[in-house]
Amino acid sequence: MFKYLIVSGNTQHLCCHVPHPSNPQIFFCLQFEGRKYCEHDFQMLFAPCCHQCGEFIIGRVIKAMNNSWHPECFCCDICQVVLADIGFVKNAGRHLCRPCHNREKARGLGKYICQKCHAIIDEQPLIFKNDPYHPDHFNCANCGKELTADARELKGELYCLPCHDKMGVPICGACRRPIEGRVVNAMGKQWHVEHFVCAKCEKPFLGHRHYERKGLAYCETHYNQLFGDVCFHCNRVIEGDVVSALNKAWCVNCFACSTCNTKLTLKNKFVEFDMKPVCKKCYEKFPLELKKRLKKLAETLGRK
């Protein structure tokens, strides 16, 4: 061990000395193994260099990873937290704090890290405010029961499934989380608007018509590509003859006047109104102003 000495007066017996800046008659020196050295000579002869900053280390030395470090220079390679007093873990040649090591390990295993205890989650995680946790770190805000991964979040609180269901809050059929805003009711389930999507292109329907097959929903384009023509009226795949009119497909029995429900064929005269066919007889009963607008629209489309 070494120790600092402060001496004054006659210094001829000292091997070296450093003048004190405030009093040239006072000198600092270090004593090591019975010998006295000025600070510069002591550093050159005995003090290790910090692997991080390259400066001499006088005082506490951290020996790790086959190098010497100032305590404040020995930090986690990822988050830069000081490791001197909390320990570290070797990870692929790096020195990491335990939370960072756990995150790296979990990433390699395809698992989650609990945001509360920073340990790997081996079971199904509980997702709270978009972060993963061990379920048993929380209790139901209503009954106090220890939670499982089936817990539900509502207005910043966590509830067990029975308590949550008693509140009557709908659960999204896609993400299994509560729906607090607008609800889409389709296919016997309830959905977040953004989660009710085409099974092929994954685009939200946003109120547009969807087509169902074997428990999945499809937009018209991909349903037709995958399964054939769909009747615009009954929303079913057309198994027999197809009536192609108004840029849509119809079952023979479904192609009818949308006003009087009279069956139509392509030989009958009809007019398009609200994207549906209207027979000539019903069209004649329309107000004159409406017929003028429809005629003008048809002429505009014809010129295009």
TrEMBL record:
The keyword Transferase does not apply. GO terms for cellular component: cell-cell junction; cytoplasm; focal adhesion; plasma membrane. One of its GO terms (biological process) is cell-cell adhesion. Pfam families: LIM (PF00412). InterPro entries: PINCH-1-4-like (IPR017351), PINCH-1/2-like (IPR047946), Znf_LIM (IPR001781). Residues 48-107, 170-229, 230-289 form the LIM zinc-binding domain. Its main location: other. This is LIM domain-containing protein. It comes from Zosterops lateralis melanops.
